[in-house]
Specification:
Blueprint: H1 2-17, H2 26-41, E1 50-53, E2 58-63, E3 66-70, E4 86-90, E5 94-97, H3 103-113, H4 118-121, E6 126-129, E7 135-138, H5 161-175, E8 179-180, H6 184-192, H7 208-211, E9 245-251, E10 274-277, E11 293-296, E12 306-307, E13 311-313, E14 319-325, E15 330-338, E16 344-350, E17 356-359, H8 363-373, E18 388-391, E19 396-399, H9 405-415, H10 420-423, E20 427-431, E21 436-441, H11 465-478, E22 486-489, H12 493-501, H13 517-520, H14 526-531, E23 568-574, E24 598-601, E25 617-619, E26 629-630, E27 634-637
Parallel strand pairs: 9-12, 23-26
Antiparallel strand pairs: 1-2, 2-5, 3-4, 5-13, 6-7, 8-13, 9-10, 10-11, 14-15, 15-16, 16-19, 17-18, 19-27, 20-21, 22-27, 23-24, 24-25
Helix pairs in contact: 1-2
Bound molecules: calcium ion (2 copies).
Length: about 650
């Protein structure tokens, strides 16, 4: 088990790091992947190489990068001259549908996009099965009526290459990922799954009966079979031999592969036809050979034995990089999300696994707080902070900065998400005419605060905990294609406080001096007092009256910015006493203990130093949203895909 996890992580790290030119041992990767997939086939439920297409309930198998011999050897029975044997290298891993795209999946596309296939549009249909049981080309044969019975689990047929392309475009847009048809080389590489025999299971066409649905054998299916009825190959791919032919992205050159690239070939620049592979229910066994190839016109040709399966391109999101923090002159490990439009989101690695620390404030700190900030009278909120030793269970990555408005904008632009603040009674803001704060009001939201200083560089505010969690889910979904799953969520309080302290007990990440806060944090300070003379806060000036753009102050020793001050930050947990914290998942308190209030951390631009303390817990309403409240994200890389 342990061994396996290590392999997984290695593959994952290597695949994310492919762009960073870290050394990758391709043969190791392949061996690991093959072993793993063999395990998968024994139904042990290992999912690490699998990725679900959520809106379609589709499974995809991880296909590692590697080299193979494409085409067939001269002595392979029934080979054709065009199957020229040549070495091909695929430099990028990818995901391939474990099954052909089904009628049910295609129907969702048709319904959602109001799509009409080429055969429906020109009224010419395609090759279907007539009343006599023989193939006939006619307008009445379409994907939904091929002339034989099909359920939602049968592979979709009578789709042109164009129709298959349209499906990929629709799905890509729907999920903000890149789906496409496989190249011919990817298809054959995936079909062979490391073999060089005529079929992925050997050389004997008689064995096809267990591996695929073709014509003239006793496999039990006259026309298409529901997908996945036969044995899969070593990559866990079903029906690569038979059932339906599958469109590939390449143009088709009937002379073979002359002049093709040895690395990541994509076929000729143009031709009359597009390639399809794998043979169908009406084909002879020889057509189902791994190297066998056919080309057909991309729009005019449709057959009741011709469908497709899809590739999901391996995402480079997130990537891992090791880079210096200029403010600290020290290197950190980052997990970096490319959110598009030149906007990135960076998380910093915190080595927390097995680390024990004291969460909360000591009696000594509490005494000091009572004397210093509360004139000797103990506030009941200190009860929340009663200290506790806790051992963290996992390393994690935590947002280097608070999530900015610009980052949140990318989330909204990409998904069309409408915040809970907007759909309920609005947020809080600054009324410039009357020089006062006001809310709740519909005119205030994550976009609008009423201050020119609130820009895309500012921390996003006026979002509820639910809104913040939806943002995390968006990031989590973006990470598809990288092996072990990523857990993206708000920080647990224990994680947040461990990260904030950065190894220091006491009030702040640097010690106890209130005035030093101005170096590390935007809080109520001298700058603010100049505008609000009655306000509390430190004397030193941090330069900001309201929220500051993220990342302006000195980071703590872990390379994290604005943990003290700027905006309060949502945590994932419900409030509870520290004695009740679970011993797993870094103490994440998912049980509400009758307490519906979540917690915010770190203080804000309007608070004094007391609220900025590492141990401070602010209990808030579950649907709360604040002009001074934002969040940062947390990621845990799960070691297995279970
Ligand atoms: Ca300030
Ligand atoms: Ca903060």
């Amino acid at each position: 088990m342990k061994q396996r996890s290590a392999g997984l992580i290695r593959i994952w790290v290597c695949s994310v790091l492919a762009v960073c030119a870290w050394p990758v041992n391709a043969s190791d990767l392949e061996a690991d992947a093959l072993d793993k997939l063999t395990v998968e086939q024994t139904h042990t439920g290992v999912q690490a190489y699998r990725s679900m297409v959520k809106s379609q309930g589709m499974k995809l198998a991880y296909i590692p990068a590697g080299k193979f011999r494409m085409g067939s050897p001269l002595d392979e029975p029934h080979r054709e001259a065009q199957e020229i044997l040549h070495e091909v290298e695929l430099t990028r891993a990818f995901y391939l549908g474990t099954h052909q795209v089904t009628v049910g999946q295609f129907r969702k596309f048709v319904d959602d996009a109001k799509y009409r296939t080429d055969g429906e549009r020109d009224g010419k249909g395609g090759w279907g099965v007539n009343e006599k049981g023989s193939l006939e080309k006619d307008g009445r044969f379409t994907w939904s009526s091929p002339g034989f019975k099909q359920t939602n689990n049968h592979p979709v047929v009578l789709v042109s290459w164009n129709d298959a392309q349209a499906y990929c475009r629709w799905l890509s847009k729907k999920e903000n990922k890149t789906y496409r048809l496989p190249t011919e080389a990817e298809w054959e590489y995936a079909c062979r799954a490391g073999t060089s025999t005529a079929y992925s299971f050997g050389d004997d066409p008689q064995d096809l009966v267990a591996h695929g649905n073709v014509g003239r054998n006793k496999d039990g299916f006259r026309y298409t079979a529901p997908v996945g009825q036969f044995k899969p190959n070593r990559y866990g791919l079903y029906d690569m031999h038979g059932n339906v032919w599958e469109w590939c992205s390449d143009w088709y050159d009937s002379k073979g592969y002359q002049g093709g690239r040895a690395k990541d070939p994509t076929g000729p620049g143009s031709a009359e036809a597009r390639v399809h592979r794998g043979a169908g229910w009406s084909s002879s066994a020889t057509r189902a050979r791994s190297a066998s190839r056919v080309g057909r016109h991309p729009s005019a040709y449709r057959g009741s034995y011709l469908g497709f399966r899809i590739v999901l391109e391996q995402s480079n999101n997130p990537r891992i990089e090791r880079a210096p923090d200029a403010r600290l002159g020290k290197k950190f490990d980052y997990l970096v999300y490319d959110l598009g439009k030149g906007i990135e989101l960076k998380l910093v690695k915190v080595r927390a696994k097995g680390q024990t620390f004291t969460i909360g404030s000591s009696a000594k700190e509490q005494d000091a707080v009572i004397q210093k900030y509360f004139h000797g009278k103990r506030p009941s909120t200190l009860d929340f902070e009663v200290e506790q030793r806790i051992t963290l269970t996992d390393d994690f990555y935590i947002g280097r900065f608070e999530v900015s408005r610009g980052q949140f904008r990318r989330f909204v632009e990409t998904t069309g998400y409408v915040t809970e603040t907007e759909t309920t009674d609005g947020g809080y803001g600054w009324n410039e005419d009357e020089k006062k704060f006001e809310g709740r009001d519909k005119k205030y939201s994550w976009m609008h605060y009423g201050l020119d200083s609130y820009t895309d560089a500012s921390p996003v505010i006026n979002i509820t905990r639910k809104d913040a969690r939806e943002f995390c889910k968006w990031l989590e979904d973006m990470g598809t294609g990288n092996g072990p799953a990523l857990e993206l969520r708000l920080p647990a309080e224990a994680e947040w406080e461990f990260a904030c302290r950065a190894g220091r007990a006491g009030r702040f990440c640097f010690g106890d001096g209130d005035e030093t806060l101005a170096v590390y944090a935007n809080l109520a300070d001298g700058t603010r007092k100049a505008m609000f003379p009655k306000g509390k806060g430190i004397e030193a000036k941090d330069g900001h009256v309201f929220a500051a753009p993220v990342g302006q102050f000195k980071p703590n020793a872990f390379g994290l910015y604005d943990m003290h001050g700027n905006v309060w930050e949502w945590c994932e947990d419900f409030y509870g006493t520290y004695t009740a914290l679970p011993k797993v998942r870094n103490g994440l308190q998912t049980v509400s203990q009758g307490e519906q209030r979540p917690v915010m951390r770190g203080g804000a631009w309007y608070t004094g130093p007391e609220a900025c303390r590492s141990a401070k817990r602010r209990l808030v309403g579950i649907g709360g949203r604040y002009g001074s409240g934002g969040f940062r994200v947390l990621c845990i890389i799960k070691e297995t895909g279970e």
